[in-house]
Amino acid sequence: MSTPTITLTSADASMARFEKQTTRYGSLTMTAGLIFSLLGPIYLVFFSDLQIAPSMIWVAFLAVAATFGVLWIVEPVTYFPILGSAAMYQAFMIGNISNKLLPAAIVAQSSIGAKPGTKRGDLAAVMAICGAATVHLTSLLLFVGVLGTWLVSQVPAEVIDVARLYILPSLMGAVLVQSIVAMKSLRPTIIAIALALLMNFVVLPAMPAVAMFATALVVIASILVSWVLRDRKALVTTSED
Amino acid sequence: MQPQLILAAGDPSSTNIWAIANTPFLWFCALGVFAVIFIQTILYARAAKVAAPHVNMPARELKESFRAGAVASIGPSLAVVFVAIALLALFGTPAVLVRIGLIGSVSAETASANISAVSMGATLGGADYTQQVFAVAFMAMSLSGAMWMLSTLILTPIMKKGGKSLAKRNPAVMALIPTAALLGAFSALTFAELPKSSIHMILVAVSAASMGLCLLLAKVLHAKWLKEWALGISIAIAITAGYFLHTAA
Q: What angle do CA B114, A76, B163 make, to 5 degrees?
């Protein structure tokens, strides 16, 4: 990134070719993945006689967009400096970036003694993600696709019903604690929890119609209040360096 | 009533999610995503193999990197598998494979599905979680995931050309927005579970406490694997507690 390239060496040229190739392969495969991922729900919505009105899709999508829309842009921008352009196309299709792909890349770089950001480091990271993808795809197909489907079909229906009824509270409590610990930022945590309590125990009982956009409202309010009440001292020192 | 092409016999008010969620065409689409990623992996590995000799990197090091990445991801992959199996009853296998296993993450996708269900006045996994609600939720989470990919497709070339300083220009905003957004979303969705029933309330507490304990133990014992498995373990404990509380009630 900061190395001055006065003469184009063969190493630079071959890395430039690598970048060009991976950008082309990466964007083509990602577009294909995007199409495949949409075909399934499109088939259900339009060709399965489920009597779904377009407005249902729009309202649901708007509610989700209002909650996660800001992350669509922020996440790619955040991960780009760490992943580099080649791995971006891998990472956002394979998923589980921070808990799997980044550690895999770092382990690979250290096992061959390559520094991140160098040419060797970049190639090691891409190969490590290839290795991680191979293991991940295989274990998903085998253990979820084949074994999981069989397992769920063997479990009695009433156990499945109970699991379905209580999966959400069983998941969300842990997810909330996990993200609080991972974020390590006290102020936004307190603000988000206070706003969520306010929404669920004050606003919603008084105005049940808000339910549709309750999560989105808490998200937007959390961002705004966290920004207004931010720790200005800490922020000034970080933006100075 | 316009004549419509109907390929699968769905029943909008049926709560038999698996009847519609495991149809062959959905399996075909899920396997399509798998195939695309496999092809991408092969193309990338080939491109790296061509470039490596020119940067003084022996083929042995490429192989070693591949193996190191593969070994490092066994634990996290199996942890994802475990959580994915827990969600099979809710979404069916193809949707779980694509949304939870690959493109998205457990928390964001389940949150999106929950938000969609609420927007239709239903509860995810509840008595009013019908095939129609599932299809709308699946569509909304897929559209949201598509937006993530679309912005990656659009932003990556732009950032490569030098716009990479966006994150550097205002690090405070860039760090604060995702933190506040995720904490806001997960807090709102977690507390929305509390008023549903006393069992829901207990399970949120059990799940949160299990995660807290796992993370604490992981830190004290320096057990990285426990951190990876924490979500799966917490779900298993809470669901088991839910089963006993439900059958006792």
A: 150
- Output Rg (C-alpha) for chain B, integer angstroms: 22
Domain segments of chain A as ranges: 11-154
Residue with tokens 């998941």: A171
Domain boundary among the residues B103, B135, B169 is at B169
Distance CA A221, CA B170 (A): 21
Cα–Cα distance measured from residue B114 to residue A126, given in angstroms and rounded to the nearest whole number = 35
Residue A122 near residue B61 (C-beta atoms within 8 A)? no
In a domain, B177, yes or no: no
CA distance A126 to B84: 26
- The residue range of the domain holding B205 is 190-249
Tokens of A7: 């003469």
Do B51 and B114 lie in a common domain? yes
Q: How far is A22 from chain B (nearest CA, A)?
A: 6
Residues of B in contact with A167 (CB under 8 A): 86-87, 89-90, 125, 235, 239
Mutation site, A127, A185, A187, A222, interface B, largest B CB count within 10 A: A127
Do B156 and B196 belong to one domain?
no
Do the Cβ atoms of A193 and A225 come closer than 8 Å?
Answer: no
Same domain as B128, residue B59: yes
Q: What is the pLDDT of residue B166?
A: 53
- Do residue A169 and residue B203 have CB atoms under 8 angstroms apart? yes
Boundary-marking domain end, from B169, B202, B217: B169
> Any idea what DSSP says for residue A3?
S
Tell me: do B197 and B156 sit in the same domain. no
Number of other CB atoms surrounding residue A24 within 10 Å? 13
Q: What is the spatial distance between Cα B235 and Cα B104, in angstroms, rounded to a whole number?
A: 19
Report d(CA A60, CA B114) in Å as an integer: 10
> Do B93 and A149 meet the contact criterion of CB atoms below 8 Å apart?
yes
How far apart, in whole angstroms, are the C-alpha atoms of residue A53 and residue A225?
A: 36
Number of domains forming the structure of chain B = 2
Q: Please, what is the end-to-end C-alpha distance for chain A in angstroms? A: 19
Instruction: Looking at the structure, tell me whether residues B160 and B50 fall in a common domain.
Output: yes
DSSP A48: S
pLDDT one-digit tens code per residue, B37-84: 999 999 999 999 999 999 889 999 999 999 998 988 888 888 888 888
ipTM over 0.95: no
